[in-house]
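Batch 3, record 17
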Amino acid sequence: MANSALPRPDMPGPQPLEARKVTAIPVSVAPLVRQASGGETPDRIFQTAMTACGLAVLGVLVLIVYELVMRSGLSWHAFGLKFFAASDWDPVNELFGALPFIYGTLVSSLLALLIAVPLAVGVAVFTTEMCPKALRGPLSFFVELLAAIPSVIYGLWAIFVLVPILSHYLEPFLKSTLGWTTLFEGPPYGFGMLAAGVILAIMIVPIISSITREVLTVVPQHQREAALALGATRWEMIRIAVLRNARAGIVGGIILGLGRALGETMAVTMVIGNRPEISKSLLASGYTMASVLANEFSEATGDLYLSALVEIGLALFFVTIIVNALAQLLVWTVTRGQPVRGNV
Amino acid sequence: MSEMAATPALPVKVSNISLRRRVTDHVMTAAAVGTVLIVLAPLVAIFGYLVYRGVGSIDWAFLTQTPKPVGEVGGGMANAIVGSAFILAIASVIGVPFGVGAGIYLAEFGRNRLGSVIRFTADVLNGVPSIVIGIVGWSILVRGRGFSALAGGVALAIMMVPTISRTTEEMLLLVPQALREAAYGLGVSRWRTTLSVTLRTATSGVITGIMLAFARVAGETAPLLFTAFGNTYWNLRPTQATAALPLQIYVYALSPYDDWHRQAWAGALVLIILIVTAVSAVRYAVRHGTFGAA
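Prediction for the assembled complex:
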């Protein structure tokens, strides 16, 4: 999608006198190619092979949907839509409801956004608008280095470094200062929803900040100059001219980060506590859709149990697809260079 | 990005600006610097701790032995390191040709409706959670047959294809149209032109895309949980359950044994080093023209 602005190979070039119906070959050279190559069979084969590769991408997606739908049929027939509203998860009695996992996925991801968004936008604003030129490259490199660390290593680090910090310092502090919100009740074990939110936040900052940076860079320079000419300070210029123009794209980046957080598996599984319960307290254990799959799928006995797990996978699949498509659309409206509509 | 002019300096007559606005400006600047520090802190902490714990934990046994039985001290992850390489090799053999092929299709033949559909599909596929890919790998290749390295490789290949195809497309589109026309003008056929002129010109970019995809799947754990599954012994048969470094790190990290924790850190360091080396080696080779016109 982002390529639309790049030169299209079939656009330039003079129009030929004799445009034959060779659909994909650039019209300008088609007659020459035909003549010189002495036959078009190898070209046909080549095009067919490449098209097959392209179609394979399509095939894989269809296969994913097909397999997920087929394998989750049993659970769908047994529970119907109630599957997503029921909160018991009792493999022994074959009672399955996905609500605790949906709750855990949503809460941990939203918590992650709450922490990550201000940080990521701040980093992007600093790198594009404030930082000395020499620092710009290294800074973005370091932030993107965070994106290259495998999820399991985040989890490992979280277990041995982040969780002790949370349980010894941050969680007691939150309990004493914000205890009245009832969001921080129960013993500060470290493992739980808060740990999952924090590690997810660390993981999605690079995504949000790199997209925000990209979007901020596309804001036309004259917008900034106009704001400064009207006497704005640098921050006012950023607020009025930069952030406002890039709004839709930033939201797109945030949603893309959300998509990543929703599907993130290993690091979350390692710190969230893995208990299928719905608790208001952020210190309590939780469970997410992805982590119940990671933990229970290979040990699931019984067809209904397996089918219920696949149905959770199917739900996760659809949610992330919708979220990602929305994000792509929003980023696209900005980076395409079109003026962002809306009047705030 | 580089075309952007430096941020213009503040207006000269600062005194005209009210104190409140100047203070806000300084506060927000400080806040932005603060966010950078907060974001860089975990990066430093993770790499620092990884090196600190990892370097002290890697020994010869770790690199050459297979795991000891539960609870026994010693042993290593040699089979997991080789297993990871094996699974990644399978993934690359499947994923790279399909990815590059799809990229060629998108750039050279895909300027139509089908092309847009495939382009969109690749983007969608890129966002599918890796655990879901793992389930599909299980459903197609493991169910009724048993865990296998092949299933793990296929799952990772599925994750590589979207990244490779989109970067390949982008790189091919950057090749000037004149180059193609020159080749056609010399009487070179279309497929020859695409492979030996267009693709060759874009080689370095395409390889960078492949390495990005490789680095992304090299550390993936979730798709391997129900496909390659893990193994405490050596295995190089594609039809058998195979150990992989990320899986081993996961299992050891959650275990109650100190020695296994030590090995999890050692494994994590090895994994990071492998990823970084693979990527920088290829970057270096590309930059120095080993792969032809760069």
